[in-house]
Structures are given as C-alpha cells and as structure tokens.
Amino acid sequence: MSPPPLRILIIGCGNMAGGFDAGRPADAPPLTHAGAFARHGGFSLLACVDPDEIRRDEFAARWNVPRNAASVADLNARRGDFDIISICSPTALHPEHLAAALELEPRLIFCEKPVTPGLAQTEAWVQACEDKGILLAINHTRRWAPDVRRLADELAGNAWGRIRSVVGHYNKGILNNGGHMIDLLHLLLGRLELVQTGQPSWDFWDTDPTVPAMLRAGDVPVSLNVAHAADYAHFELQLITEKGIVTMEDGGMNWRVRHAIASPHFKGYHALNEGTRTAGQYPQAMLAAATNLHAAVTNGDALASDGRSALAAQHICEQIRLSAIGSAST
Question: Which helix (H) or strand (E) is 166 found in, with range?
Fold first, then answer.
C-alpha cells in the first residue's frame, strides 16, 4: 500500500511557486514548486499564501489548492498540518516566513535561494531548523539536474583527468545568481577560497553587486567573470581539463563537450575536436528535486541541496561582496 501524499503549503505565489509553468504544454518538464509537486504524484497541494489576492486566487485555481490566505497567520493552520512548506516569497521576507514555517513544525522546509539576505541570518535559520529536527532544502536547482550530478561524479572519478582551470560567467548579483555559481563550483570542485576581487557592478540589486573574482579550489584556478543583467540573462561555466573542455551554456539548457585528439595537422601534437552540443537536463531538475524531497521525508534519503551547502556558498559570496565593496571605497 502506497503512503499517503505529503501535504504541502506554498508561501508566495509568484514565478517560482508556479508562474513559470503557466501556459507551458502539459507534458513539458515542470520548472516550479507547484508544477513539480503536481507532476510527481506523491504530494497534495493543500494551501497557499500570498498578500496579492488576484495572484493568490489565480494560483489556487490553476493548481487546485483548496485553502488560501493573505498570510500564514490568516490561514489559521495548526502544528503538523503540513509535511512540507515551500517558501517562494521574495528573499527579504524569508526570515518572517521561516519563522512562521518553524512554528507549524513541518517535516521539511523547501526554501528558495538566497536563504536570507545576510550571512548571520542564514546561519541562524539553518541552525534553528537543525535544532528542531526539521529538514531544510534550498533550491540551488542545478544540484538536482541529472547531467550536473553525472559531471560531478565524472570529475570525482578522474574521468576527465586533471582540472587545469575553470571560468564562470554570471550577472544579477553575487548572492542572487552568483550564489548559484558558487554552489555549483562547490559541487563540482570542492570548497573554494577567495584570492582577489575586481570592480563591482550594480547591474540589478541595490545591495547585491555583480563582482568579478579570482578563486581557487585546491590548486585549480577559478575565474569568475561578469555580464550585465540589463543586456540578457547569462550563466555559463567552462572547465578546462586534461582530456578536453566541458562547457555549460544557457544556464544548463545546453552543453558543449570537446575532447583532446591527435592533431590532424601537426604530427606529435594534440588538439581539440569540434565536439558535440547536446540539450541539457536542467529542465528535469525541479521534478528531480521533488523526488529527492519525497525520499528524504519518507525514507530518510540525504538532500542533494540543504542548508549547510547553501550556507557554505553564501560564506564565499559574502567574502566576495565585502572585498569588492571595500576595494571600491578606497
């Protein structure tokens, strides 16, 4: 007999909650919390919260959510009413909503990133969840993408030989989008150390600049370069390895892989082949996340992305931010 579905409360009814799946084909991979929960089949969307009545009502109608309210307090919920609480509200509201979620004592909280705007705040909430025995999953989405997980395993297994250098490009804030990049680098390379920062660019957020930086993971040099959010979204990563070059393009929507071969022109030399381009599995990440969350709650499986991994990324982001601001002011 299959277990009962896990009961879900979603706080915030915007794009990541369900909006990005509006208007997409019914068989398209889900990109949102509600879409992934609904597609998985092991969850029941019981309630949603958002102060915007029109957005809340549209969300509840689209996802067949029976209860909705302007705030968690207005929901009149009791402890234990929900197994999982998804926090999809703006980052500035995360501390308030984490507090409300902890009061309801779910088995797991699934929070959008950044966890909070400040490192000390994030550390306090990660610890608070641990103290209460509540699992905390953070939506660093690429940790659930099958191709990213496969690449991490290949690198760990030395399938690409030595990693010579890594170059990443991002925009829209070192904490907001840069946090995704730092977390991805932690997954693929291990812990990073900051070497140097460049001139910050205030391309979107007033308090979160986009910053170029030099880092290292062990003896691997890592260059973090910037684009401008006003131009286009940009999130790409290139790994130069002993056996070839692996490039994530379009945020993980596409990959290019080039292997080292004997040079067709110069005897005794090696060169790179033209390589292959393949569609990425980033669109599969949210459904994989739902699967991981379900297994974590029902079977005790480890979370692929949790509060501690998010906190480690935010530590580096904060070092980069403070170094860049300090250098720019002198």
Answer: strand 163-170
